[in-house]
């Protein structure tokens, strides 16, 4: 919250009684966009008065929250009616416990760190309805840690120069399709005790995945197709307008692959080398409902 106290100099040179104006949170009406850029220093978003979130754009209003030189930390909700939401950090970008970033309709969410990590807790969430979600970590070797990503009718892309890891939510990603690209590992792999590997939990219809490190460790609730996937989240600029951030990928490329599918596993028709693995491969399909025939 912010309070501003002003006093007026009267004709006799005395000061009038102070007038105090106060406000909390950042909100718009009439489809107004919100653009906040910290040109020097960190951007911290906290709850003001009430429990309606730190930043709320009305209707189709887009949101850009950016730190040009430092971190972006959200400790309270960020939301738009149906607009697009973009969070940009020079260094680390994080969502605190219980924090949601949400929009509905065709609104999409982009979260990027230029030189560091993107981190969520197990109780933080990013949600869209028809729009896509994109998370990208910074240059070097930097992780993306996922809480819950839900694009009800949309697609998700997670791009990490390090690991794509979970924060142990029940299902990390729910969407039509997903692109996962990691400079290291997707999921968790223990080189000393491989049996301790832990899968990234998905609920998607299609996936394309690549990991340049130890491997891909993923489970999926429901039928899964491995093949071509594309996403088109909308990146909000300094003028409050949005432009498409298009990504595409195909198949699976990794060292070790551990894939568990609760349902049928298929691949795109007419494609070759859908799975390109230099190491061991373990694929398991199980019945998603009694009476189905998807065991393998």
Please provide a brief summary of the model.
By secondary structure, this protein is mainly β.
Quickly list its features.
49% strand, 12-stranded parallel sheet, single chain, 296 residues, 11-stranded parallel sheet, mainly beta
Structure overview:
- This protein is mostly beta strands.
- The strands form 5 sheets. Strands 4, 7, 10, 13, 16, 19, 22, 24, 26, 29, 31 and 32 form a 12-stranded parallel β-sheet that branches. Strands 3-6-9-12-15-18-21-23-25-30-33 form an 11-stranded parallel β-sheet, with no helix packed on it. It has a 6-stranded parallel β-sheet with strand order 5-8-11-14-17-20, with no helix packed on it.
- Mean pLDDT is 89; it is low at 19-23 and 290-296.
- It is built from no helices and 33 strands.
- 0% of the residues lie in helices and 49% in strands.
């Amino acid at each position: 919250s912010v309070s501003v106290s002003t006093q007026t100099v009267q004709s006799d040179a005395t000061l009038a009684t102070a007038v105090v104006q106060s406000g909390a949170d950042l909100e718009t009406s009439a489809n107004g966009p919100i653009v906040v850029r910290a040109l020097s220093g960190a951007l911290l978003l906290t709850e003001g008065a009430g429990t309606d979130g730190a930043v709320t754009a009305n209707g189709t209003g887009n949101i850009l929250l950016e730190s040009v030189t430092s971190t972006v930390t959200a400790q309270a909700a960020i939301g738009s009616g149906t607009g697009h939401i973009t969070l940009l950090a020079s260094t680390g970008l994080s969502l605190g416990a219980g924090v949601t970033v949400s929009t509905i309709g065709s609104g999409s969410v982009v979260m990027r760190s230029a030189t560091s990590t993107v981190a969520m807790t197990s109780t933080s969430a990013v949600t869209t309805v028809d729009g896509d979600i994109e998370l990208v970590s910074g240059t070097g070797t930097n992780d993306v840690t996922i809480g819950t990503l839900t694009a009800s009718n949309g697609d998700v892309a997670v791009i990490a120069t390090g690991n794509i890891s979970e924060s142990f939510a029940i299902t990390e990603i729910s969407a039509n399709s997903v692109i996962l690209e990691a400079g290291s590992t997707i999921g968790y792999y223990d080189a000393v005790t491989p049996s301790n590997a832990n899968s990234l939990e998905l609920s998607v219809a299609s996936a394309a995945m690549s990991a340049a490190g130890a491997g891909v460790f993923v489970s999926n609730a429901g039928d899964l197709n491995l093949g071509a996937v594309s996403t088109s989240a909308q990146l909000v600029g300094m003028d409050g307008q949005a432009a498409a951030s298009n990504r595409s990928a195909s198949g699976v490329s990794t060292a070790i692959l551990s894939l568990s599918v609760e349902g049928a596993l298929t691949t795109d028709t007419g494609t070759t080398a859908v799975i390109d693995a230099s190491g061991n491969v373990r694929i398991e399909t199980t019945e998603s409902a009694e009476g189905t025939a998807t065991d393998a």
